[in-house]
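Revision sheet: structure tokens.
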Amino acid sequence: MKVPLLSVDPDAAFDAVVHDQIGGPYQVPAELVRLAIANGASRVEVQCRRGRVIVEAQGAAVPEAAIEALNRASGQGDDIARLQALAALEDLDAAALGWAVGLNPRRLLIRIWERHSLTTLSAKRGQPFRLSHGVGRQEDGFFIELTGPHLNHQRALRWLETACRFSPVAVVVNGRNQQRELDSGCFRARIASPLPAVVALGVDLDAPRLWLLRHGVVATRVGVPNWPPFEAAVELQGQVEGRASAAQLRQAVAPHLEGLVSRVVELGVRVVPRIPELGFRQRQRIILLLLKAAERGLSLENIRRAPLFEIVDVGGIRWVSLEALQQWRGALPGVVDCGSTSEDVEKPYLCLGVREREKTSGLIGRALSGAVINRAAFGPKIASSARTFFEFARGMVGPRPLPESDLVDGERVLVQALQGALRTAGRSIDVTVCPGQRPPQRWGRHLCLARDRPSTRWAVRAVSEDPACVYVVAVALKLPRWTVAAHTRSNWLLGESDELV
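Predicted:
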């Protein structure tokens, strides 16, 4: 007796690819953007509103063979031929067109312009596709409109914002350009090996966070525990096939992970001379990155010799290395937490956060004790305690500072620049931004700028356009006992500023 062969329903196959090959229907608009960029789009515009999705790409030459394959796959022909056509779409790296059909829209319209010719594919739900050809416009491009697709539009919008943030071309979604650079950390660099990537150092993370891209569009995000923290957008096109799943992308990046971390550590060592310019939070993150790398034996000798640690002595501030601490004669300097007040501490003392202190002690094989309080210094401090209290209280009145994650790029640049420019008693000023329009609040080692105040907006714009302008802003904002870093004035006089690594 013959056993009948099992067959696959092509209509079910369209539905399956949307749910199995990508995260779900909400990702289809972003996949159409990826298709446009992969085929040379110079700009992509997306309208994603309730009941309609439109993707229009300039300069994208989608192969006509992809449209013909989509027509065969969606037609009324033999099931085997339709499934073969669907496979051909994947081979052409144009599976996104099949995923669009899988959304089962009430109406589908696709137009492709290439070399002065126009190819149009249209259909209504439950009816055969109609393929036609005509004369097209001069420039290449394509237009896709889905009316009544089965997807969550709000979720699709959120994913478009995430997926298109690293796009190499402008991607405008509902009138807003989603394209932006990696904006975390203190320093950023573009690298070509072991994989093309943009990396950010000094991030507020406990472990690396990798955005895995294909054609500049995010496919998935992964965390890598137990490695030195950084953030990176990694391009994997060419490392995987077009139909690769998120799991396959993670497998593809795994063999390159150690090489990627090594490149990040190499960059971290290169920025060590810039550490004194940073605020203490950013400084802690860079130091922690390098200490974690040293614990794993990455670039150990370079890190051991790098001047990572700030020592405050009677004669001023100096920077020493792990090697110097390990070879220190006699008792090591006491440790003061980076963010604490240190005027009453016996000098010399070492400025370290709790986590860096623990790792440093382990790497040098010596205990690091807390600093000794100089009790003789209490007398002069009592006279100024009331003034200090009222300054602090004045600073605490009003809106609370915004978290760093809520700042826009220009505000973040201004905050980091001012923290590198303003100092008091050898320590960086802690700069924050708050809502409202009140005058700048200054007390102790703190400066709070009101986001909506015209002078703050001017400072954000000026420093974003020319980093050397931070000198003018710092002079305008400083208290009498605050100082402006000498390198900031030099940059202003020379009309230039150091470039980030």
